Amino acid sequence: MKNIMVTGAAGFIGSNLVRQLLSQGFTVTALDNFDDFYNPALKRQNIKDFSSNINFTLFEGDVRDKTLLARIFSTKQIDCVVHLAARAGVRPSIENPELYYDVNVRGTLMLLESMKNYQIGKLVFASSSSVYGNNTKVPFSETDSVDNPISPYAATKKTGELLCYNYHHLYGFNVYCLRFFTVYGHNQRPEMAIQQFGRLINEEIPVTLFGDGTSRRDYTYIDDIVDGIISAIEKVSGYEIINLGNHETVMLNDLVETIADVLGKKAKTVYKPMQPGDVNITYADINKAGSLLGYKPKHSISDGLEKMFANKFLVV
């Protein structure tokens, strides 16, 4: 498969994926609506380096636009779709659940319907570790129950997985739903914790932590995630849910200290109560990813942070 469509192509994960796909000789059809969840200029900067590549075509618009999707699928040869476009973020989803449902659920349905109409049967769907909620069993396995999401964002991602299964069952789609675990690295969205912490520590401004700093996350470097996505593109068959994480948890307090060490600074912290929708821990069982995809993350948290902060901070 050499002709790949990527939705949300100008975002954090999307732009890193497109860059790697082009370097490996794939042809990429990109869709992005450049919404204002964060500064659209950052997204345009993300794709600036390869926007003139003859193997790259950008369609600017919304995944909910059936007419646009029909134009793309009727004019472009597509072997596989990677669906990354979504409203992201747990806390904003609590404030605006209707928008999250519309983009993440209806948008996914519109895409699946258009793929069906144009007989495109391979999909890699971006899900999230947030579907596990406050699961007390660790590490999180794909066989664990995910019936208790604790944010609208998590609920939309679980719903997206179910829609993907519908189209696998009804129409024979081959779908891999990839549950990403706290991705960080180059082009990370400016509101995400590691970007915020890095800027604040670099400017010697106190960092606000929610909770007592003992919550833990399975932080996964972007290059490892991209490797997993590309392997999924090449191997997608049947219907599978697959964790993509680092299989290593880092305490929030330790994360802040590691960022400070990488930047050669001293961190100052302020603690506030835990926020609604936040989970206590994320921790990926990646045995299935290793077996099906040959997935093996290469970056420790310190390695990934060194790479992430080697060049520049995003300008908000």
Structure overview:
The protein has 11 helices and 13 strands. With 316 residues, the chain is α/β, with parallel strands linked by helices. Helix 1 packs across helix 8, helix 7 (193-202) crosses helix 9 (252-263) and helix 9 (252-263) crosses helix 11 (301-308). The mean pLDDT is 94.
Number of domains: 1
Structural class: alpha/beta
Strand order in space, largest sheet: 3-2-1-4-5-6-11
**Tally the helices: what do you get?**
11
Indicate the low-confidence ranges by residue numbers: none
| Major sheet | 7 strands, parallel
Mean pLDDT: 94
Helix and strand pattern: EHEHEHEHHEHEEHEEEHEEHEHH
The span between the termini is 37 Å
What's the helical proportion of residues?
40-55%
**In percent terms, what proportion of residues is strand?**
15-25%
The third-level CATH topology is Rossmann fold
Q: What is the subunit organization of this protein? A: single chain
CATH architecture, please? 3-Layer(aba) Sandwich
Q: What does the radius of gyration come to? A: 19 Å
Q: How many β strands by DSSP?
A: 13
Give the CA-based shape: globular
| CATH superfamily annotation | NAD(P)-binding Rossmann-like Domain
Name of the top-level CATH class? Alpha Beta
